[in-house]
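Predict the structure of Pentraxin family member.
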Amino acid sequence: DLYRKVFVFRKDPSDAYVVLRARLEQPLHNFTVCLRSYTDLSRPHSLFSYATKAHDNEILLFKPKPEEYRFYVGDKFVTFRVPDSRRDWEHVCASWESATGIAEFWLNGKPWPRKGLQRGYTVGATAAILLGQEQDSFGGGFDLYNSFSGELTDVYLWDTGLSPEKMRAAFLSLRLPPALLAWSSLSYEVKGDVVVKPRLRE
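Done. Here is the predicted structure for Pentraxin family member.
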């Protein structure tokens, strides 16, 4: 249980990453991914990378610059422009549903205008899920200058689209529905220079 703890990615640039293990029974027609990050990077960096054998950016949360997030599904992406965090914690949730192709993006408990992405697509279930690196091949192919440096916490993946109430609950660290990946019961393996530490402040 990583309650009130964080992964500290100490080096910049870094070859370190964290492998996450999720029990995926079947392909995903809907999902929500949430996490909280704290960094002073201004260069591009990956936050959450879910690759299959067919698509290295099957699901990817990527920050090319401080005022922009890219949300990928099946190698295609939409861009959400955001205010510069002024170097504070940022909580993001991104959700997607196959039936409508609607992509939702929430930053610090607030929704951004919805966008269209990969309607009718299915996300593969056999996946390599990594924090801290962006995969260019299944489980590897890293570019160190897309690596994450800083602190990550509160990582979740659900096989549903969360309701607005639950999106806000995730931001506030309140009770959440059972997840494929849950920070409170995370199965993970650290590769390289990543340290688990208590969170410095709420």
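DSSP finds one helix and 15 strands in the chain.
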